[in-house]
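Reopening: structure tokens for the adenosine-5'-triphosphate complex, inputs below.
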Amino acid sequence: MASVEIAGVSKQYAGAWAVDRVSITVPDGSFFSLLGPSGSGKTTLLRLVAGFLRPDAGTVRIGPAIVNEVPPHKRDIGMVFQQYALFPHQTVLDNVAFGLEMRGMGRKAREAKAREALEMVRMAGRERAYPKELSGGQQQRIAIARSIAARPAVWLLDEPLSALDRKLRIEMQSELRSLQKLLGITTIYVTHDQEEALAMSDGIAIFRDGRIAQQGSAEDLYERPADGFVADFLGSANLIEGVVARGPQGLHVVAEGEAFRPSADHILRENERVHLAIRPERLDLSGAPGAAQGLPARVESVLYLGSDLRVVLRTRGGALLVARAPSRGTALAEGAEVFAAFKPEDAAIVAH
Ligand SMILES: Nc1ncnc2c1ncn2[C@@H]1O[C@H](COP(=O)(O)OP(=O)(O)OP(=O)(O)O)[C@@H](O)[C@H]1O
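Re-run output (same inputs, fresh job):
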């Protein structure tokens, strides 16, 4: 197995930087996601690691070796694409064995390896089928089996589940993760689905316009977003404008005329303009103003989502807030006046 180290890598298309000085280290055996909106450079970076593209600057290492000049088939990688890219006129077994043949393995050995891979993706018994006889989910399992049959050191997946329906996607997320752990394979996973990245990854890099807005563990990014873009991208954070002021208790954030204490791990600079970023599920609408900190607000709409409600609120200062409240035992009507409370540790303070 091998780590992947991307150091200062850039790539431009027709004068525009698709990937701009990106550095990421993916430790041996870990699962790392590239997350970001469409066009932010995720696929370009994955193709640079795969060797389909050459960086204009920087280096890509797989294990100890710099691979900038190494063609894809010599990089010891397995790849899965959004579109399964199976050969329609070949059987499942031949599709999975294809890469092994390219590596010069004899028929017996490659069929044994291919069967082993099919067992891992729970497709044993379908060796003689053709791709068109399989569902989309099953075809993707075949593509996954093909990518791991040779037991590569590095696994690169580009939105592998985005063509599947939601239920199957969630099932496949945990299967992919289990398989990744079983094989101990170093993995880079491209997705634009924040829930998927949070659920699956040891590490995540959030892309914005070819650059990394922030990288870290799922918890780091969710609880301590570096800025409003990251906070919002990772799950519709509420952003309330404020400014850092000095009071008798030290530095705090003033927003809509109220003082908010920072949690212990925030470093504030006087007069800095900031946002308080609060997750919808961390707003508590159940109480009256009292010991808790928060903002008075009026309910604009209540949407029933099954297990919970989505409540849209407008603060007196004009900020729009979204809260999640349990659907049982919550009686909220449009126009009601409420107090939206939150704990200091649930409000990340992010750059404006
Ligand atoms: N072959 C190409 N020629 C010219 N420009 C390209 C090419 N491939 C990508 N780009 C541009 O590079 C930028 C990054 O694209 P990239 O496909 O890496 O983004 P992405 O984050 O993977 O997006 P998506 O989620 O939509 O696939 C975009 O502005 C895109 O238009």
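Residues 78 and 147 are 4 Å apart (CA to CA). Helices lie at 42-50, 92-102, 107-120, 136-148, 166-183, 194-200, 218-223, 228-233. Marking as resolved unless the reporter disagrees.
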